[in-house]
Amino acid sequence: MKISKNFDANHIKSFSSNFDRKLLRHIQKLKSPDSKIKQAMIYFVKTGGKRIRPFFIYRMGLFLNIKPNILQDFALSIECVHLHSLIHDDLPAMDNDDYRRGKLTVHKKFDEATAVLAGDMFQVLSVKTLAESKHLSANQKINSIQMLSKANGLEGLIAGQSLDIYMKKNSNIKDIEKMYLLKTGALFSLCFHLLLNVKNLSLKKKKELKLIGEKIGKIFQVTDDMLDRWGDEKKVGKKINKDSQKANIAYKFSREECLKYLHQIQNKNYKVLQNFFNTSKEGLDYMSSLVDFIVNRVK
């Protein structure tokens, strides 16, 4: 990908098409006496997706002059974690969704057992991708897998999912923000944090990079919440208003208050981006316009 001055929605469309071909090849290479799980995994990839996490990895990686082959391994690994979380999130025991992106969820297209196992396999594939990478050193593999395990485990996504399910509707904003930081922020933060395994940066830059990921994760989640309450169901591609009885900022604030809250986070993130890209206006312009896209998305 060539670096452009500002983000354009067509950038992510062309990136997603190319990335999905790589992801499908990655899955098709898996060997198994059972074909059903692979079929379910391939089906879910083909239902589409924004691939925002891989896109962030590639873009920030390009600004840091990291080799594309390394970025591809990181991107495949993180997207596999994300896909695992989505398949499991749709299950009757969790969000109980019949549709995602306007298409049947995996447990509806196949069955619940297949959905559980397909989600499990995406999780396995995320680690397998890093462990078998031909572009990372042994130490880089170990460090990357440790980071992945932390972001996906009881200090990250899995804990966040549990809090999301069992947190009471009347929970305070601080507790909801903590849940967001784990459920969504941990994986977004990992997109940037993984790059530190192959790029030497100052301690200050490392902290800024981690903070950028966390704030983008919060921005993404708040936007998701707003779409659940005020989005167009046809554009969103799944049932809306399903989180009305959950701990959710969009159901605690009015739309105007949500937008104000969202823009406050966005402004804080912009300041961190300014510090990080202090000598690169190109990087600042591109990444901040990419965040604008997330804020204004309709699905």
Describe this structure in words.
With 299 residues, the protein is an all-alpha fold. It has a single domain (9-295), classed as Farnesyl Diphosphate Synthase (Orthogonal Bundle). The protein has 13 helices and two strands; from the N terminus they run H-H-H-H-E-E-H-H-H-H-H-H-H-H-H. The longest helix has 28 residues, at 203-230. The model has no long low-confidence stretch (mean pLDDT 93).
CATH superfamily: Farnesyl Diphosphate Synthase
The CATH class is identified as Mainly Alpha
User: Which range does the strand content fall in?
Assistant: under 5%
Number of strands: 2
> What's the architecture in CATH terms?
Orthogonal Bundle
The gross shape turns out to be: globular
Q: Helix count? A: 13
For the biggest sheet, the summary is: 2 strands, antiparallel
Give the ordered list of helices and strands. Answer: HHHHEEHHHHHHHHH
Arithmetic mean of pLDDT? 93
Number of individual domains: 1
What is the radius of gyration? 18 Å
- The CATH topology assignment is Farnesyl Diphosphate Synthase
Name the assembly state.
Answer: single chain
Strand order of the largest sheet: 1-2
Low confidence ranges:
none
Distance between the termini: 24 Å
Tags for this entry?
single chain; 299 residues; mainly alpha; Farnesyl Diphosphate Synthase; two-stranded antiparallel sheet; 13 helices
